Protein backbone atom coordinates (compact mmCIF):
# COMPACT_ATOMS: atom_id res chain seq x y z
CA UNK A 1 0.00 0.00 0.00
CA UNK A 2 1.32 3.49 -0.82
CA UNK A 3 2.59 5.08 2.41
CA UNK A 4 1.09 8.41 1.34
CA UNK A 5 -2.40 6.98 0.73
CA UNK A 6 -5.07 7.69 3.31
CA UNK A 7 -6.45 4.86 5.38
CA UNK A 8 -8.88 2.85 3.18
CA UNK A 9 -11.96 3.54 5.33
CA UNK A 10 -11.70 7.28 5.82
CA UNK A 11 -12.51 9.84 3.16
CA UNK A 12 -9.72 10.90 0.82
CA UNK A 13 -10.23 14.48 1.99
CA UNK A 14 -9.54 13.60 5.64
CA UNK A 15 -6.05 14.53 6.80
CA UNK A 16 -3.90 12.41 9.10
CA UNK A 17 -3.40 13.70 12.65
CA UNK A 18 0.17 15.05 12.97
CA UNK A 19 2.51 12.86 15.06
CA UNK A 20 5.70 14.24 16.60
CA UNK A 21 7.84 11.12 16.37
CA UNK A 22 11.44 11.73 15.25
CA UNK A 23 12.08 7.96 15.19
CA UNK A 24 9.60 7.52 12.34
CA UNK A 25 8.07 4.50 14.05
CA UNK A 26 4.54 5.98 13.99
CA UNK A 27 2.84 7.70 11.04
CA UNK A 28 -0.52 8.32 9.33
CA UNK A 29 -2.70 8.56 12.43
CA UNK A 30 -6.48 8.73 11.81
CA UNK A 31 -9.33 8.95 14.30
CA UNK A 32 -12.20 6.50 13.69
CA UNK A 33 -15.33 8.16 15.19
CA UNK A 34 -17.48 5.26 14.01
CA UNK A 35 -15.84 2.96 16.60
CA UNK A 36 -15.73 5.50 19.45
CA UNK A 37 -16.57 4.19 22.95
CA UNK A 38 -17.74 5.99 26.07
CA UNK A 39 -14.29 6.57 27.55
CA UNK A 40 -12.11 5.69 24.57
CA UNK A 41 -11.19 6.88 21.12
CA UNK A 42 -10.24 4.39 18.42
CA UNK A 43 -7.57 5.21 15.86
CA UNK A 44 -5.74 3.57 13.01
CA UNK A 45 -2.05 4.28 12.54
CA UNK A 46 1.02 2.88 10.84
CA UNK A 47 3.57 1.26 13.15
CA UNK A 48 6.80 0.63 11.26
CA UNK A 49 4.77 1.07 8.06
CA UNK A 50 2.07 -1.45 8.96
CA UNK A 51 -1.52 -0.48 9.75
CA UNK A 52 -2.66 -1.25 13.31
CA UNK A 53 -5.52 0.00 15.46
CA UNK A 54 -5.29 1.86 18.77
CA UNK A 55 -7.71 2.11 21.66
CA UNK A 56 -6.82 5.01 23.93
CA UNK A 57 -8.49 7.09 26.62
CA UNK A 58 -10.21 10.26 25.46
CA UNK A 59 -8.21 13.38 26.40
CA UNK A 60 -10.51 14.27 29.31
CA UNK A 61 -9.81 10.88 30.94
CA UNK A 62 -6.19 10.37 29.92
CA UNK A 63 -4.59 11.65 33.13
CA UNK A 64 -7.05 9.99 35.50
CA UNK A 65 -5.37 7.05 37.32
CA UNK A 66 -8.72 5.24 37.65
CA UNK A 67 -9.31 5.21 33.89
CA UNK A 68 -5.68 4.32 33.18
CA UNK A 69 -6.11 1.30 35.44
CA UNK A 70 -9.24 0.30 33.49
CA UNK A 71 -7.33 0.46 30.20
CA UNK A 72 -4.49 -1.63 31.61
CA UNK A 73 -6.90 -4.19 33.03
CA UNK A 74 -8.69 -4.51 29.70
CA UNK A 75 -5.34 -5.17 28.06
CA UNK A 76 -4.54 -7.89 30.61
CA UNK A 77 -7.94 -9.55 30.03
CA UNK A 78 -7.86 -9.41 26.23
CA UNK A 79 -4.18 -10.15 25.62
CA UNK A 80 -4.55 -13.91 26.08
CA UNK A 81 -7.79 -14.23 24.11
CA UNK A 82 -7.34 -15.87 20.73
CA UNK A 83 -10.34 -16.42 18.47
CA UNK A 84 -10.78 -15.90 14.71
CA UNK A 85 -13.84 -13.68 15.27
CA UNK A 86 -12.29 -11.43 17.90
CA UNK A 87 -9.92 -8.55 17.13
CA UNK A 88 -6.51 -9.62 18.47
CA UNK A 89 -4.68 -7.49 21.05
CA UNK A 90 -0.92 -7.21 20.45
CA UNK A 91 0.55 -4.69 22.91
CA UNK A 92 0.08 -1.82 25.37
CA UNK A 93 2.25 1.13 24.45
CA UNK A 94 2.57 4.91 24.66
CA UNK A 95 1.91 6.43 21.26
CA UNK A 96 2.95 10.03 20.47
CA UNK A 97 -0.04 12.35 20.41
CA UNK A 98 -2.35 9.62 21.71
CA UNK A 99 -0.92 8.41 25.02
CA UNK A 100 -1.15 4.93 26.47
CA UNK A 101 -3.02 2.71 24.02
CA UNK A 102 -4.04 -0.88 23.46
CA UNK A 103 -2.64 -1.93 20.08
CA UNK A 104 -4.64 -4.43 18.06
CA UNK A 105 -4.64 -5.95 14.60
CA UNK A 106 -6.12 -3.65 12.02
CA UNK A 107 -9.50 -4.63 10.60
CA UNK A 108 -10.20 -3.56 7.03
CA UNK A 109 -13.96 -3.37 7.01
CA UNK A 110 -17.15 -1.72 8.18
CA UNK A 111 -19.22 -1.86 11.33
CA UNK A 112 -22.61 -3.52 11.31
CA UNK A 113 -24.05 -0.12 12.23
CA UNK A 114 -22.70 1.38 9.04
CA UNK A 115 -23.92 -1.54 6.94
CA UNK A 116 -27.41 -1.16 8.43
CA UNK A 117 -27.45 2.60 7.86
CA UNK A 118 -26.20 2.25 4.27
CA UNK A 119 -28.60 -0.64 3.51
CA UNK A 120 -25.73 -2.97 2.62
CA UNK A 121 -26.79 -6.10 4.50
CA UNK A 122 -26.21 -9.34 2.58
CA UNK A 123 -27.20 -13.00 3.11
CA UNK A 124 -23.58 -13.77 4.01
CA UNK A 125 -23.64 -11.15 6.78
CA UNK A 126 -26.83 -12.66 8.19
CA UNK A 127 -25.17 -16.08 8.19
CA UNK A 128 -22.10 -14.67 9.94
CA UNK A 129 -24.33 -13.26 12.68
CA UNK A 130 -25.97 -16.68 13.07
CA UNK A 131 -22.67 -18.56 13.32
CA UNK A 132 -19.50 -16.52 13.84
CA UNK A 133 -21.00 -14.09 16.35
CA UNK A 134 -22.39 -16.95 18.43
CA UNK A 135 -19.03 -18.75 18.26
CA UNK A 136 -17.29 -15.62 19.58
CA UNK A 137 -19.87 -15.20 22.35
CA UNK A 138 -19.45 -18.83 23.41
CA UNK A 139 -15.66 -18.40 23.54
CA UNK A 140 -15.94 -15.24 25.64
CA UNK A 141 -18.30 -16.92 28.09
CA UNK A 142 -16.13 -20.05 28.33
CA UNK A 143 -13.28 -17.76 29.40
CA UNK A 144 -15.54 -16.03 31.98
CA UNK A 145 -14.99 -12.60 30.43
CA UNK A 146 -17.28 -9.69 31.29
CA UNK A 147 -17.89 -7.13 28.57
CA UNK A 148 -20.16 -4.31 27.55
CA UNK A 149 -23.30 -5.32 25.60
CA UNK A 150 -22.75 -6.39 22.02
CA UNK A 151 -24.08 -3.75 19.63
CA UNK A 152 -23.91 -3.09 15.87
CA UNK A 153 -21.07 -0.65 16.64
CA UNK A 154 -18.86 -3.39 18.13
CA UNK A 155 -19.34 -5.83 15.24
CA UNK A 156 -17.11 -5.37 12.19
CA UNK A 157 -17.20 -7.20 8.87
CA UNK A 158 -14.03 -7.44 6.83
CA UNK A 159 -14.30 -5.99 3.36
CA UNK A 160 -13.45 -8.87 1.05
CA UNK A 161 -14.84 -12.00 2.71
CA UNK A 162 -17.27 -10.39 5.19
CA UNK A 163 -15.81 -12.26 8.16
CA UNK A 164 -17.09 -11.05 11.50
CA UNK A 165 -14.82 -9.47 14.13
CA UNK A 166 -15.84 -8.33 17.61
CA UNK A 167 -13.96 -5.26 18.85
CA UNK A 168 -15.03 -4.67 22.46
CA UNK A 169 -14.86 -8.09 24.07
CA UNK A 170 -13.85 -7.74 27.69
CA UNK A 171 -12.90 -5.58 30.63
CA UNK A 172 -12.82 -8.17 33.44
CA UNK A 173 -12.19 -11.89 33.87
CA UNK A 174 -13.92 -13.75 36.68
CA UNK A 175 -13.86 -17.19 38.27
CA UNK A 176 -17.27 -17.76 36.71
CA UNK A 177 -20.14 -15.90 35.05
CA UNK A 178 -23.58 -15.83 36.61
CA UNK A 179 -26.69 -16.87 34.73
CA UNK A 180 -27.65 -13.20 34.75
CA UNK A 181 -24.41 -12.38 32.90
CA UNK A 182 -24.96 -15.02 30.22
CA UNK A 183 -28.63 -14.14 29.80
CA UNK A 184 -27.75 -10.46 29.38
CA UNK A 185 -25.31 -11.45 26.65
CA UNK A 186 -27.99 -13.44 24.86
CA UNK A 187 -30.48 -10.58 25.19
CA UNK A 188 -28.03 -8.18 23.54
CA UNK A 189 -27.60 -10.68 20.69
CA UNK A 190 -31.39 -10.81 20.23
CA UNK A 191 -31.54 -7.03 20.14
CA UNK A 192 -28.90 -6.91 17.40
CA UNK A 193 -30.67 -9.55 15.30
CA UNK A 194 -34.05 -7.85 15.69
CA UNK A 195 -32.60 -4.55 14.48
CA UNK A 196 -31.01 -6.26 11.48
CA UNK A 197 -34.31 -7.98 10.62
CA UNK A 198 -36.09 -4.61 10.82
CA UNK A 199 -33.88 -3.40 7.97
CA UNK A 200 -34.12 -6.40 5.64
CA UNK A 201 -36.35 -6.29 2.53
CA UNK A 202 -37.57 -9.82 3.26
CA UNK A 203 -39.10 -11.56 6.27
CA UNK A 204 -37.25 -14.31 8.15
CA UNK A 205 -39.89 -15.50 10.62
CA UNK A 206 -37.87 -18.33 12.19
CA UNK A 207 -34.90 -16.07 12.85
CA UNK A 208 -37.27 -13.43 14.21
CA UNK A 209 -38.71 -16.01 16.60
CA UNK A 210 -35.22 -16.86 17.84
CA UNK A 211 -34.33 -13.18 18.28
CA UNK A 212 -37.50 -12.49 20.27
CA UNK A 213 -36.85 -15.53 22.45
CA UNK A 214 -33.35 -14.17 23.17
CA UNK A 215 -34.88 -11.01 24.61
CA UNK A 216 -37.69 -12.70 26.55
CA UNK A 217 -37.52 -13.48 30.28
CA UNK A 218 -38.05 -17.18 29.54
CA UNK A 219 -35.52 -17.29 26.73
CA UNK A 220 -32.31 -19.24 26.24
CA UNK A 221 -30.24 -19.92 29.36
CA UNK A 222 -26.96 -20.52 27.50
CA UNK A 223 -25.36 -19.68 24.19
CA UNK A 224 -25.17 -23.45 23.52
CA UNK A 225 -28.99 -23.66 23.75
CA UNK A 226 -29.26 -20.73 21.33
CA UNK A 227 -26.77 -22.31 18.91
CA UNK A 228 -28.70 -25.57 18.94
CA UNK A 229 -31.94 -23.81 18.04
CA UNK A 230 -30.12 -21.87 15.31
CA UNK A 231 -28.71 -25.09 13.86
CA UNK A 232 -32.20 -26.62 13.77
CA UNK A 233 -33.39 -23.57 11.87
CA UNK A 234 -30.54 -23.94 9.37
CA UNK A 235 -31.18 -27.66 8.99
CA UNK A 236 -34.85 -26.94 8.30
CA UNK A 237 -33.89 -24.44 5.61
CA UNK A 238 -31.53 -26.97 4.00
CA UNK A 239 -34.27 -29.66 4.09
CA UNK A 240 -36.75 -27.33 2.39
CA UNK A 241 -34.15 -26.42 -0.23
CA UNK A 242 -33.41 -30.09 -0.95
CA UNK A 243 -37.13 -30.91 -1.27
CA UNK A 244 -37.66 -28.00 -3.65
CA UNK A 245 -34.63 -29.08 -5.68
CA UNK A 246 -35.92 -32.67 -5.96
CA UNK A 247 -39.36 -31.48 -7.06
CA UNK A 248 -37.78 -29.16 -9.64
CA UNK A 249 -35.60 -31.97 -11.04
CA UNK A 250 -38.63 -34.29 -11.21
CA UNK A 251 -40.60 -31.68 -13.14
CA UNK A 252 -37.73 -31.20 -15.59
CA UNK A 253 -37.39 -34.97 -16.06
CA UNK A 254 -41.12 -35.33 -16.73
CA UNK A 255 -41.03 -32.44 -19.19
CA UNK A 256 -38.08 -34.01 -21.06
CA UNK A 257 -39.85 -37.39 -21.40
CA UNK A 258 -43.09 -35.97 -22.76
Number of helices: 6
What portion of residues is helical? 40-55%
Number of separate strands: 10
**Given the C-alpha coordinates, what overall shape results?**
globular
Calculate the terminal CA-CA distance, rounded to whole Å: 61 Å
Radius of gyration: 22 Å
Q: What structural class do helix, strand and pairing data support?
A: alpha+beta
- Low-confidence segments, given as residue ranges, are 238-242
Task: Output mean pLDDT.
Answer: 88
Strand content: 15-25%
Main sheet strand line-up: 1-2-3-5-4
> What is the string of SSEs from the N terminus onward?
EEEHEEEHHEEEEHHH
Key words describing this protein structure:
258 residues, alpha+beta, 6 helices, 19% strand, globular
Structural description of this entry:
This protein is an alpha+beta fold and 258 residues long. The protein is 41% helix and 19% strand. It has six helices and ten strands. It has a five-stranded antiparallel β-sheet with strand order 1-2-3-5-4, covered by helices on one side. The radius of gyration is 22 Å and the shape is globular. The N and C termini lie far apart (61 Å). Mean pLDDT is 88; it is low at 238-242.
Amino acid sequence: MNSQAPYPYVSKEEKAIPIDDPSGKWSDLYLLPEWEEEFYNVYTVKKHGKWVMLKALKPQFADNPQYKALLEKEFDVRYNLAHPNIVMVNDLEKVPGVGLAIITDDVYGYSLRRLIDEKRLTPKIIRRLETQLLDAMQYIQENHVSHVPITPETIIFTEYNENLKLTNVGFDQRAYLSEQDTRADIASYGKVINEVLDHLPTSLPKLRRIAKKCESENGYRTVADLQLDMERRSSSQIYIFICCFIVLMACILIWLTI
